[in-house]
Structures are given as structure tokens and as C-alpha cells.
Specification:
399 residues; alpha/beta; Metallo-beta-lactamase, Chain A; Rossmann fold; 2 domains; 7-stranded mixed beta sheet; binds MU-OXO-diiron
Length: 399
Amino acid sequence: MHHFVHLSENIYWIGVNDRRTQLFENQWPLPNGIAYNSYLILDEKTALVDTVSMCSMDTFLEKAKEILNGRSLDYLIINHMEPDHSGAIRTVVNEFPDVQIVGNAKTFPMLQGFYNITENLMEVEENSLIDLGKHKLRFYMTPMVHWPETMMTYEETEKILFSADAFGSFGTLDGGIFDDEINLDFYEEELRRYYSNIVGKYGLQVQKAMDKLAGLEIKMIASTHGPIWRSHIPKIINDYQRWSRNETEEGVVIVFGSMYGNTEKMAEIIARTLSEEGIRNIRIFDSSKTHSSYIINAIWKYKGVILGSSAYNGGIFTPMRDLIRELEHIMPKNHFLGIFGSMSWGGGGVRTLEKFAETIKWELVAPPVEAKHAAQEKDTEHLVRIGKEMARRLREEKK
Ligand code: FEO
């Protein structure tokens, strides 16, 4: 028996928590787990909005069948085909063979490709409406938030936006399902980490989607991950506005790659200078220890980024190489940049970071510093200069 969660009298949350999976998309750490949210609407017709990951579908199906209580499922709405939401589709179709599968022109080739499902398809487009009786589902195409087929479904009677990945978060729902039932401080970092890691590359498309939805009266935002928003809707919309425009706070993220500690010492000199210059948000990360997921999240928060690397076999130190490749893939914008490192016998760390600066087009606040081995007096002066120039640009930005 399940303890059901109502969004309204006849709309239910039937999501599941995943506390076992270590890595989301097999690459992003899940220390706090993740929730896959799915919603069931009972009316003259019944509709399921999105499903869950394959690894959690037994509980999900139990909940759906218990609520349906012998009724059939009329519609399955697929807002997003990524398998963390589509994984249970085949099971749902097996259970309810007459269900109409609702998607758009880009959904169905994926449905066939992933699950070999080609029948009972109902194609919708921008502004299409499905009338369930009392509830009416309106569809909005929101491509690339997060895949090309992604769309959102707006239930016009209760004014609930089923937003797919948008407004979602890492972290399980530990009892509290709605934003006013939980301590939002817990989700603060996980919301931005989810945005920056998963959706951040598509900021322009997020902006387009937000513009499109701006005219809707929204009483609840029901994402496929994380809490359901009903009491803090302006807060989460404001977060998405800021993050998708790459708006940041005053602060500096320093990331170093260091085999024997010499480059780390250089990072400490810059950090101390920043502190002396009045910067209060300074985070230092060791790229060998901290997964890029957390570093990218910090970069999404703070304006200043200072990267330092030792050389490695004539190139850049491997964990720093991986980080800058990830950043070049996601392409966060509007940062100030500083570069430092040590060359040892062959150099290559600073040289590679300089190429990265050209690619990413962040403003370089001071000339890069490259120590020959360990930093000497003259190197220290230049490191202090990076700290001072970064602080100066941040202060100017604040005015
Ligand atoms: Fe939660 Fe893009 O899937």
C-alpha cells in the first residue's frame, strides 16, 4: 500500500526515489540520489505524464495501478525521451496495450529507436489540446530543454505546468515532495548543479522556453526531478532566468592541477591576495580530487575563474585537461579568467590554458604566470598581480 501524494484532488505524484545509482547519465555523481517524477491524472479519461527510469519501475507501476484501481490508462504523455523518464514506457505499454502515446514529431523516431514502439501514437504540436474531461492538457514545444523532442504540458484547469527536466534538481525527495514541505537550503546547490551540468549548455533555448511560458498563469511547476514548486515559483523562475543568462555573483573559483604541490602553492598565494583585496567568496578545488560536476556548479555561481596547471609529458596535467574539455563542451559565458602553472621540464600546462582562454572567450584579467619549477620571488609578484587584477575587475563589475 502506498501513501499517495496529491497535487490536486485528481492529480497524483507517482514519482520514485533512486538512492542506488551512483552516477546520473553514468557520469555525474549522485551523493544525495535523485527522484524521477511522474504524474497521474484521473478524469473521464486518464493520463500519465512521463514515466521513470527502468531501475525504479516496479514501485512506479504499483502506484499507478493502485490509483487507477482497475481503470485503464487512456494517454501516456511523453514530454521527454531521455531514458531516465522513458525507461518504463515499454512496461506501461505492456500493461495498458490500448494506451495512446502522446508526443511530437521528434518524439516518435526516438520511441521507435529506443523501444521499438510504433503503434497507438498521437502526435501533438505547439498549442495542441487534449481534453480529459475536467482537465485539459495544452502542449508547448521546448526543444533542447534538454533534448530536441522536449516539450512541456500545461494543465489548464489546475494551472499546473509539467515542465520535464526544467526546474529540476538532483537529490531525492525524502518525505517532502513540495517546495514548502522541505528545507530549500538542502536543494540550493543541487538545483544549480543539475542546471549547470545537464541543461546549462542550452541557456538560449531555456530563455526561449521561459519567454514562451511567460503568459501562463502557473500555480504549480511539476518537474521530472526534485521538488514540486507551488510556494516559491518566482524564486525558481528567477534562478532559471539568472542561470540561463549566465548571471553570476561576486566570487572566485580557483582550480589547480598539481602533482607535487608546487602549483597548489601558487593557488594559495592568489587566494590570499583575493582575500586581502576584500573578496569573500573564494573556493579552491583540486582537479584531481573534486569531480568536474561540482567545479562547474561553482563556476556557474561565481564570476571569477582562475585555472592553474602543472605540465604533464609536454602537455597539461590530465585532470585539468578533462575539466577544460568539459567547460569547452558546456561553454559557460561571461567570466573573468586568470591562468597560472609550472612548466617543469617541458611546459604545456599554461600553454594549453592559454588556448582554452581563446576558445572560451572569457576576459583574461592579467598575463598568465608560469613558474619554471617551484614559484620564485618574481613569480609570486605576478601571482599577486593576478589576484589584485581579478579583485579589481570584480569590484568594477559590481558598480
Ligand atoms: Fe531527466 Fe534529460 O532527463
